[in-house]
Amino acid sequence: MNDADLRSRLSALRPPALSEPAVARARFRASLAHAAARATPPAPVAHRDAPRPHPSALFRQLVSALALPVLAALLLLPLFRHTSSPSPHPAATIASASRQLLAELEALFPGQLEAVVERNGAIQLELADAPTVPAPADQAVLVEFIRGAQRLRVLAYSGRLVRLRLDRDELQFSPLLTGTGQVLLAGDDFAWSSSTPASPEALAGWQITARPLAAVL
Amino acid sequence: MSAPALASLAPPADFVMPATEAPDDLRLHALAAAGDSDAFTELFRRHYPAIHAFAYRLALCPGAADDIAQDTFVHAARALATFRRDASFKNWLYAIAANLARDLHRSRSRRQAREQQLALLAPDPRHAHRDHAATDSAHAAVRDALVRLSSEQREAVALVYFENLSHAEAARVLGCAESTVSWRVFRAKSRLKKLLRDVAPAASRP
Question: Rounded mean pLDDT of A49-78?
C-alpha cells in the first residue's frame, strides 16, 4: 500500500455532522470568555481601521442577546466574590446579588440554567442543551470548593447535575436540598453532607461548604 | 480556569508559523483582541468546523470533539493577546486543541482504571445518534485503526494526513522537533498500512 492508498483509506473517517446546539453553546461560551477578557487592558491594535467583518444576522442577534448576561455577570461579580466583605450585612448582600444573578440568567435562559460557576474571578455558565422546567428560586444552593488560595463557587439548583473541572478532572455531582435545610452532594464517586462536612477522599484536599441560598440571609 | 492552567494549554510563547493564510484572519484577530465581538464571532464561524473535525480525529468520539472544540475557542478568547501575529491563527487553534485533547486523554485514562480500556474511545451515548458514520464499516475500520495508535502518533497523522500540514508545520503546532513528527508519522503509517490493508480505498467504494 502506498501513501496515496493510505490517504484514500483514511478519508473514510468522516467527522460527525455538527450539532447545532453544541455549536451554539460553544459560540456562547467563547463569546462570554471573550467578553470577560475585555475587562483586562486590550492588546495593541495594528489594524483598527481594517474593514469590519459582516457576520450573519443570527450572529448579530446572538451577540446582542449575550450582552445583557455578560454585563450582569461582570457587574455582579464583585458582589458575588466578597463573602468576607466588612459591610454591615454581607450575607444579605451576597444572597441578594446571587439571587439577582440567578434571576437575570433564568430570565434569559428559562429552564436551561444548570449552574453558575465562579473560578478565580471568571464566571462560567452551565446550560442544558434543551430547556426543562425552570427550577424554583427557593431550590438554589451555594456550594464552595476551597483548597488553599483556590476557591470555586457554584450557584446551582437542587437536583440539577453540575459539571466542573477540579484540577484536571471533571467533577459531576447533584446538590440535593433536604427538608431540614441540609445540602447533600451526590457525585460519581463521592457523597458529602453539610451535616458531616469532612472533605471526601476523592476530592484531593478540596474542602466543601454548601448551604441553601435562602439560608444565607 | 486559573491563569497558570490556561498558560499550560496555550502554545509556547515563541510559537511562530509562516503566515500563509489569507490576511483577513490576522485583521480579525487584531480587532478581536481589541474587544470587537463581531470579529471574534467571525473567527469562530470560520474555524469552528475545522477545529471540531480535528478534535474528532484526535478523540474519535463526537461528544469529546464537541467539548474540545468548545474549550479551544474559550481558551483562545482568553489568550488572544498571546497569539503572535506572524503566526497562522488556524494553526494556533490546532495547537490549543491538541493540548486540550491530551488533557482529556490523560483525564479519561485515569478513569479507565475502573473501566475497560477502550471506553475512552467509545461513542458518547449522549451523542450516539450523531455518530451515523460509525455504522459505515470503512469509517469504523479507520477509527479502530487510529485507536490503536498512540496519542502522539494520532496527533501527527491528524495534522499531516487530514489537515495537510507539512511536517515542519505540524512540529510547530505540537511543540516538538520536525524529525520527531517525521518519526511518528513513519511509525503510524507502517501500523495503519497493516491495519487497513483489507479496507477498500474510498475511491473504489460505491
Answer: 43
Do B56 and B30 share a domain, yes or no? yes
| Residue B71 in grid coordinates | 474549550
Residue B202 placed within a domain: no
CA distance A211 to A158: 11
Which residues of A fall within a CB distance of 8 Å from B139? 12-14
- Output the pTM of the full model: 0.52
Is the pLDDT score of A65 beyond 70? no
What cell does A54 get? 459582516
> For residue B13, is it within any domain?
no
Domain extent at residue B33 = 1-7+22-131
B55-87 residue pLDDT tens: 999 988 888 899 999 999 999 998 898 888 777
Nearest to B62 among A7, A16, A47 (CB): A16
Give the mean pLDDT of A202-209. Answer: 84
Residue B25 near chain A (CB below 8 Å): no
CB distance from A52 to chain B under 8 Å? Answer: yes
Q: Pick the more confident residue, A13 or B50.
A: B50
Q: Supply the pLDDT for residue A70.
A: 53
Nearest to A106, CA basis, from A160, A56, A53: A160
CATH code assigned at B143: 1.10.10.10
Q: Is residue B180 part of a domain?
A: yes
Residue of chain A whose alpha carbon sits nearest to that of B46: A55
Residues 133-172 of chain A with CB under 8 A from chain B are 150, 165, 168-170
Cross-chain Cβ contact A15/B130 below 8 Å: no
Judged on CB neighbours under 10 Å (0-12, 13-18, 19+), A151 is middle
- pLDDT at position A189, please? 75
Q: Is the pLDDT of residue B152 over 60?
A: yes
Interface contact flag, A26 B69, Cβ < 8 Å:
yes
Q: How far is CA A198 from the centre of its chain?
A: 25
